[in-house]
Amino acid sequence: MAKAPGKDKQKSADKPADKGKRLLLGIDLGTSRTAVMSNHGAKHMVRSVVGYPKDLIGVKLLGSAYVVGQEALDKRSYLDIRCPLEDGVLREYSERDIEVARHLLSHVIEAAKPKPNEEICAIIGVPARASGANKSLLLNIAQEMMDMALVVSEPFMVAYGQGKLVNALVIDIGAGTVDLSALKGTLPEAEDQATLARAGNFVDERLMALIEERYPEVQINTYVACAIKEENSFVGDNGKSIKVELRADGKPGMYDVTDQVQAACESLIPEIIETAENLIRGFPPENQSDVLKNIIMAGGGSRIKGLGSFIAEKLSTFGEVEVTTVADPTFDGSAGALKLAQELPPDYWDQLGDLIA
Prior knowledge:
By secondary structure, this protein is α+β, with helices and mostly antiparallel strands. Among the domains are: about 20-160 and about 330-355, 2-Layer Sandwich (Nucleotidyltransferase, domain 5), CATH 3.30.420.40; about 200-265, 2-Layer Sandwich (Nucleotidyltransferase, domain 5). Helix content is about 35%, strand content about 25%. The strands form five sheets. Strands 3-2-1-9-10-19 form a six-stranded mixed beta sheet. Helix 5 crosses helix 12 (about 330-345). The protein is flat, with a radius of gyration of 21 Å. The termini are close together.
């Protein structure tokens, strides 16, 4: 039986759930952005932040106890901004952190517009090497507002959505983590997957530090650095300079940040290449040439200009390399999760991984 998100699941004796009515959700729970798609056509992306008023003035201005997503960022001057995910997984520090995660997940489910008495069944993506404890924490929260939930690795969701389940390598670059998965025709084992902590947020911090080093007079924070990255990110030869408006002592000015953007973005590459090489070596030798021609870039970081060809060049000593990028990095993971949910009935989800029902 579907229930109001955020409330304990209760079974009603006089209004049993209709087992034929299921809301299937594919959820890509990300450090920066969370995407959800449903079998009823819902498609929604929300920034993975929750804002709470700092004081009574904030309560009056906001008109509610909290707000989720971009609105929270827009009103951050009088809100306490909380990010329930760190390095792609839920924070486990306190009950307060769990409450923030609960508010985010509740908002995501509400965005899918569940109907009364409709079973809510969701496949949720997590980093490839997320711990068992973190998966359990997420499932415990999901149990409060869903009838069934399954957690699977984010790169596997991407691979399933792309129909690339044999002799393929997925590189999923998010804000909190870079997840790599070697697809061999079965559910990936632990040794076939890797999670790297240096990802989009690391690029933001690196870019901010490089700009401060070059222009110590400017005022910059991670919000500004992230905006510069998302607008101008590239690796290799950009072919043009990047000039942005920054403020020094409150006054605007134009600053060339070409070298800083390039260095920050390319700081991700060595660890990705080293990990990709190790995963490629794990395939049978007769299949490695096929894998090299079947490398899939996904996640927000796949939008970095020149990244696919840059990675292909770095791996070229292994042979001919072909790197493709998913068509929709925002929803590639949630689309794969929804496809899996639709093609494999929830009654069989326990064969795929950690599950609550």
